[in-house]
Amino acid sequence: MANHNRTRRTVRQSRALGIALTPKAEKYFERRPYGPGQHGRARKKQDSNYAVQLREKQRLRAQYNVREAQMRRIYLEAKRVEGQTGKNMIEILETRLDALVLRAGFARTIAQARQAVVHRHIMVDGVRVDRPSFKVKPGQMIHVHPRSEKMAPFQIAATGEHQAVLPDTPAYLKVSIEKLQAVLERAPKREEVPVTCEEQLVVEYYSRLA
Q: What is the model's pTM?
């Protein structure tokens, strides 16, 4: 029942944000590509700039399943780094351990990836890591703990079943799915990251609050 309710919430959130947040939500979304509720199909008045920026920020947050305080810290970090702040934000988000667990196909959704990390099923270079926000560095190996490999969710992952419904594995990640291993070969580039976002709008949202 809890899983069913969580699925319904995710589908509803997907429709509200205009993006499919999980493979299951994508199927619902294809059938009902409009917002939730009785007014979902109604033509909306033109949104204000602030509303557009807010929605884009919420879309980015939802895709990485991060809290507002975390997102704000990432924005400030991205601003300090050389280059475009929006691109930097997504590149920072993409090196989170939970994001890479998802990209590798060890989990089917970002929520499942986060849970796998929190429950200590994931290792980085042979050391268990239980922080989803852990920053993976180029050259580091992400892998499932040997004892966890025998669990049903990871047995399914090892067949490539999750990879089949997720976006193609990005070029910065080398995956041996049958071994449940992945290496971050280099820093991600924005154009390779499979997230739907106009990141400049997110930057504009946070710069208003500065």
A: 0.83
